[in-house]
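User: quick one, fold this
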Amino acid sequence: MSAAEDLGKLIFALNPYTNRENPASSTETGDMDLYVDSPAAGKSAPDISQFEVEVDTAYPAKWEFKEEAQHINTAVRLRYRYPVRRRYASVPARSPSF
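Assistant:
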């Protein structure tokens, strides 16, 4: 497996929002889906052209990691979606509050 494939699997595995249970709302989330756009002309789904990516290079921020300041100069945001399902059929689904 390539390093790029390994990195992709690591990102999916560390995502804190998918494949999780929420006992407070009796819901659970499913798998992350990065294919949120229509494919580019001449491409068929699923295709990387469906990824919605934002890059910000004017990102003057600091992040504390293991008690050391890390300077962040570039940020990348990947848009994705995931399903939210009722965990128990007897409990009515509720809208999440954000």
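User: anything notable?
Assistant: The chain has a mean pLDDT of 85.
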